[in-house]
Amino acid sequence: MPIKQNDEIDLILLLKTIWDGKWIIATTTMLTLISCVIFNFYTPNSFQITSTFSTNNQNIFLNFKNVNDILIERVGTDTVYLEPYSFDEKTIYEIFVNEFNDYIEMTSVLKKNDFITNKIKNLNDLQKQKALMSFAKKFRILKPQTKGSDPKILFNWHDVDEGFLLFKIALNLTLLNVRDKIVNDIDSLASSLNDQNQRRINLLKIRLQSIKELYNLKIAKKKIFLKEHLAIAKELGIKDFQNVSFDVELVSKISKKDELNYPYYLRGYKAIQKELDLIDYRSKTENDLMADGYLEIKEELIQFEKDVRSNNLRNEANKINNTDISSWINFNFELAEIENLNKQNLYIIFSMFLGLLIGVVYIFFINAINNKKK
Questions:
Q1: Quick one: which of 98, 240, 336, 372 could link to 268 by a disulfide (CB 3.0–4.6 Å)?
Q2: What are the pLDDT tens digits along the chain (374 aa)?
Q3: What whole-number distance in Å separates Cα of residue 233 and Cα of residue 268?
Q4: What's the CA gap between 313 and 273, in Å, rounded?
Q5: Do residues 156 and 46 touch, judged by C-beta distance below 8 A?
Q6: How does DSSP classify residue 147?
Q7: CA distances (Å), 4 to each of 9, 18, 262, 279, in order?
Q8: DSSP-assigned letters across all residues of 14-71
Q9: Does an H or E element contain 325, and which?
């Protein structure tokens, strides 16, 4: 029972001590609260804004399907190879993210912002670049966390509306650069196609010229052969074909190698002269047409010379260059999630608790010193 009484007395003394120092406790609480309010007043706001965006507007990219179709068209028997290139929402997304993540567009926008200008005005050039990059990295694109989900835009800024505006300007600049990159890529593909076609054309022309030169040599050789046998036939007085044991059937069995050994003069000088006349009367075009392989090579050459794929690619690039880029990426800041990172209400509650704790500790500390003196 005495122990219980002492506990009750100690509790009463404890409460009395706190009551006696109530103004001190109130003062410390008020001071910490005022300090917190002043801190919150001078501390810039900080909001975290998150919004989804997507590139799944298929209707936009149907207009550019021709780019893919052109690149897989075949010309001639030997297809000119081009690196695969696909103009679709996936391509747009990958180029868009890579372009934005270099922070060039974001830093160019931030340079013109009054808040940033004031922040970095006393820094040297290197420090300004580092500060701009640090601010630019507050604006990020988050990759999808799960398959099928949309990527997110996230940024931290002291003013929600200003942050939206800065991000929107940077996104539009990024899309402009994405469009320019795609147009340049397609133009490069067209140039590459032109170069490859020209190399193929040059090669086919060389082959065609070789075929013609070789055939002209064969004709020259044959004319020498015919003239010699023409002379023999005239010398022997053989005017018409002689029906001897080696007839036309035998001629068809004679190989090219043994052709010169065949007694051609037996055809008669009249037939031989006619064959020589026909050879001499042929035009250059007719002579070329008689060459083995000439028509096949000529056909392929014409196909490559009339290849319009590079022009078609550039036409598609012009279409892309004239499109409205705002429809390539869908984002709606009106549906964004906004979170205040400063937690001002939490700071006020914490400051009041801290002031109360400091006041109570101070009262007990002073009370203990006074008791010791007594």
A1: 240
A2: 444 444 454 677 777 777 777 787 778 778 877 777 776 666 667 778 888 877 666 666 666 677 777 777 666 554 444 555 666 677 777 888 888 888 889 999 999 999 889 989 888 989 989 999 999 998 888 877 777 677 888 888 888 888 888 988 998 899 899 889 888 988 888 898 889 889 999 999 999 999 999 999 999 999 999 999 989 988 888 888 876 554 445 555 544 445 556 788 888 889 989 999 999 899 988 888 999 999 999 998 998 888 888 888 888 888 888 888 777 777 777 777 888 766 666 767 777 788 778 877 877 777 777 777 66
A3: 6
A4: 57
A5: yes
A6: T
A7: 9, 21, 144, 140
A8: HHHHHHHTHHHHHHHHHHHHHHHHHHHHHSPP-EEEEEEEE---HHHHHTTHHHHHHH
A9: none
Q: Which two tokens stand for residue 285?
A: 């075009």
Q: Which two tokens stand for residue 317?
A: 């690039």
How far, in Å, CA of 139 to CA of 101, rounded? 9
Q: How far apart are alpha carbons 153 and 160 in whole angstroms?
A: 14
Write out the two tokens for 315: 């036409």
25/30 Cα distance (integer angstroms): 8
The CA distance from 178 to 325, in Å, is: 9
Q: What is the pTM of this model?
A: 0.67
Q: Give the pair of three-digit tokens for residue 207.
A: 């082959």
Domain map of the chain by residue range? 208-305
